[in-house]
Amino acid sequence: MQEQEEVVAAAGVFKALGSPIRLAIMRRLSAEEEVRACDFHEVFELAQPTVSQHLKVLREAGLVHTRRAGNTISYSLSTEGLRRAEAELGVLYPVRTSLPPASVL
Q1: Do 48 and 40 touch, CB atoms closer than 8 A?
Q2: 3-state SS, one letter per residue, for the chain
Q3: Which listed residue, 16, 37, 54, 69, has the most CB atoms within 10 A of its CB?
Q4: CB atoms within 10 A of CB 6
Q5: Hey, how many other C-beta atoms are within 10 angstroms of the C-beta on 43?
Q6: Distance of alpha carbon 35 from alpha carbon 51, whole angstroms
């Protein structure tokens, strides 16, 4: 049962990263220690509810942390969530001394 739960959790992480907007949010967070929610709205030129929905998906997947200061919510990467995603990729394709040619991938 534990393996099934791990697979479901990993699928949620990869589904969250499957959106171009959410992947761009994650890249932005990797470049900065913390980003306010309103800054994403300005950069991506999306309606605030749309940005909030994308951030919610990332939060529920365990990929971001939130911090509230008054009315402002700031987001940062969850190193634990990223480590889980990295571990799952390692299960799918363990590091080998000799990788196949790119055309095989």
Answers
A1: no
A2: CHHHHHHHHHHHHHHHHCCHHHHHHHHHHHHCCCEEHHHHHHHHCCCHHHHHHHHHHHHHCCCEEEEEECCEEEEEECHHHHHHHHHHHHHHCCCCCCCCCCCCC
A3: 16
A4: 14
A5: 13
A6: 13
Token pair of 12 as six digits = 């949620």
* pTM for this model (two decimals): 0.81
Q: Report which of 86, 80, 105, 85 is spatially closest to residue 14, judged by C-alpha positions.
A: 85
Residue 66 phi/psi, 5° resolution? -120, 150
Tokens of 69: 């200061």
Q: Per-residue pLDDT tens for 1-56?
A: 688 888 888 888 999 999 999 999 999 999 999 999 988 887 788 888 899 999 99
